[in-house]
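yo

u said u wanted the structure for the complex thing, so here. seqs first:
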Amino acid sequence: MELVNKFNELVAKQKAYIYVLTLAGWDSATEAPRGAFQRRAEMLGVISGELFNLQTSKEYQDVVYGLFKRLDELDDITKREIKKAKKGLDKIIKIPKEEFVEYNKLIGLSQRKWEDAKHNNDYEGFKGNLEQIFMYNKKFVAYYNKDEHPYNIMLDGFEEGMSMKEYDEFFNTLKKDLVPFVKEVLNSGKKLNDAFITDFYPKEKQKEFAEYLIEVLNFDKNSGLMKESVHPFTWNTHSTDVRFTTRYLENFMFSSIFAAIHELGHATYEQQIDSKWDDTTLSGGTSMGIHESQSRFYENNIGRSIEFWEAHYPKLLEIFPEQLKDVSLDDFYRGVNKVEASFIRVEADELTYPMHIMVRYEIERMIMNNEVTVDELPKLWNDKMVEYLGIEPKDFAEGVLQDVHWSAGLIGYFPTYALGSAYSAQFYYTMIKEIDVEALVKGNNIKVINEWLKEKIHNFGSSRTPKELLFDVTGEDFNPKYYIKYLKEKYSKLYL
Amino acid sequence: MELVNKFNELVAKQKAYIYVLTLAGWDSATEAPRGAFQRRAEMLGVISGELFNLQTSKEYQDVVYGLFKRLDELDDITKREIKKAKKGLDKIIKIPKEEFVEYNKLIGLSQRKWEDAKHNNDYEGFKGNLEQIFMYNKKFVAYYNKDEHPYNIMLDGFEEGMSMKEYDEFFNTLKKDLVPFVKEVLNSGKKLNDAFITDFYPKEKQKEFAEYLIEVLNFDKNSGLMKESVHPFTWNTHSTDVRFTTRYLENFMFSSIFAAIHELGHATYEQQIDSKWDDTTLSGGTSMGIHESQSRFYENNIGRSIEFWEAHYPKLLEIFPEQLKDVSLDDFYRGVNKVEASFIRVEADELTYPMHIMVRYEIERMIMNNEVTVDELPKLWNDKMVEYLGIEPKDFAEGVLQDVHWSAGLIGYFPTYALGSAYSAQFYYTMIKEIDVEALVKGNNIKVINEWLKEKIHNFGSSRTPKELLFDVTGEDFNPKYYIKYLKEKYSKLYL
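structre next:
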């Protein structure tokens, strides 16, 4: 059908604009000089304005809405593309162009401004940006749909089909079945030989180990790379260019190890997507939650398992013979799974991690409900940390300013982290029925695991919804019991 | 005037496209994964096609040609902008869009292909690209002007006002007055204590010294950065984002030192351009020759002077105590100014450097004259190396494949390197009448030199032509005698 060809042509053009903007984002986050930011924001504002024109052009609207009326005539793939495109159009079409351009400029500037604010513990210097970002997002969702709760629209944007109703149910289950167990572990009084964790590990040596890790985890360097940034992240434009970052803290080596493995999980997902989707709107992972399930799987189910360290602790010992000379494999394994109430989400252990998400979920809901001002956020944050973890951040950098997300306009993203961990457990219990994960990890045979994930999950890109994928792979709908089971089994052995 | 505002508006939009394409180029050259290149070329093809549309739009043509008819009503700056824009339009307007897009795709792919070819010493695998690049360039200049010699059009494109006539004159003067002196030096039989040059210098340590260098040379890191790439280069989009690369050869430390200083010279020029030009078409250095005069000035007049090493050799000794333990300051100074017939242009000493340029100039002229095929290039190259330097390359990597330029479509660029060195000497003899360069370098007071260059040369951006600039600063037109004088004075002392 001619209209379908036209659709593909228009999409290809939009993709080229998205590509260069994404590339500029990577540059900003990993190396662009500070002084360049003002002018860069102006330039990228022009390009994103052009993209906006393309994404909202009369021509594109006619094609998408035209095809939407003839859905029955389309094959399943095109059908899904058109539904997705229509939803995207519905969301964007009522936003005045100037506001969209202004918002993109704001986002362009805010990321570096957030970095500075975090570095200087200067919430005052950043809250104006934050207020603007919240304001625009509320405005934008109201343009789209005045009848739905704004936060529900945001949540669905990151995880198709999820709303406050489903998340409340999920978090309530965690509160009921997991929180008491977490308290039990935190109060177990178990002593670890863990002084090594905060020993000094020179950055260059950490880099050497990170390079080793991505090698043994089979990361495809021909189609990607690893770099360094303040906040680790994964970046991709298509299956042959997938990049990620880690960060090196010389007094906390776990940061670079687990950030690298985590982001490598995201990156492996993207690299293993069938390249046939590259040209379509169904390229890339299907949702934030499924994406996070993959990164968490690599980070926790593989990277924090005893089998993984049986295979790779000798290499780490070789690189850090001094720092680790009195640390047995068992000490090390317990160290990487140490549970404690802590401030920084990305450094948090698996078990307390969902508590960090609850804090953010509840705050975001209040923001989108206009129940809290930016001035009140730091205190609100700290109060919730006390409520869920019993500890109070002493500055903004370990409180409300720690995460990059809001500075990038990502509101409603956080809950997918906890959801992803839960998906991950559900996938895991299916996987171990089919392949011997423990033996494969211990034998450094990650390729087989990658293949399993590719065949069951990765290669589909966005051609299946998260709900479809979860059901197809595990034979049931989302069920948080696997998550709770996994955590209780693992941490009972370690702590109780 | 409304038309001028319209012009500025259209230029601003074009600049945003140039910005993202330039950024993608930086990424390609410094880190993008190999596997990404095919798809990346497609994407960038779309964006450069869009830029081409803007640069050749009816609207832009009307504005530029309209203003060109009313030049008398414009201020001097706008006048120069419009003249420049008109020349650009004249050159581009007759190129069919498909050919322009195809050419840009070709260039996008060729750079990495050249790298591979050089790495694998595989001329066969690259010559097809080269042939295509030459073909397109000949075609494009013929669209512009059938009456002028194609190479003259290329030459003028890199250095306004230069043609084969001027270059022939310049190179003939060198042949007459410099070549006999070079032979005398090469045959002097002077023995140096120079085994240290090819000692082993670990990359990380070299990086440390390169970082030190850009610090003492006052590079503004808030508006730029230094990175690593196969072929060192400088990159800029505006005065607040200027980047350059160096390369680290562990058995030839001079490569990283002098590539870093050389590129820093280019970068300093760009950073010191008055930011008021950023929004205009007169941003950036005024010509390749003037640009090269600045990089050569930093590299040779500063970086290879005895005063510079009096100031900084102690630091180098501190970083490489073992490698340099038997090397006196005098040995080191003679080492960095060692003259010898060698294969690689970018590693060549100051004195034999113009011979490398003559080889390229004569070959390019033959290419543009259709006197040679790509199959014959390697032999032709080698023959000319024998003719001018008495040595024959043993493979393509040290012969015809050594430079990035042709793979990037830069034909007519090479001669500006020799010209720049000659400009540099002419500027130098003016500078030393006004400030005590030797004392400033020795006292590590580079700021004063930077200021002089900023005031006399840099801050004008492209608002003055190379000819105007040279005359304004030195009080006379281009005169190669300073270049010959400088080289003879310096190398007589060292060698005769």
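Residues 2-145 of chain A form one domain. Chain A touches chain B at residues 12-13, 15-17, 19-21, 23-24, 26-27, 31-36, 38-40, 42-47, 50, 204, 220-225, 227, 237-238, 240-241, 243, 278 (CB under 8 Å).
cya
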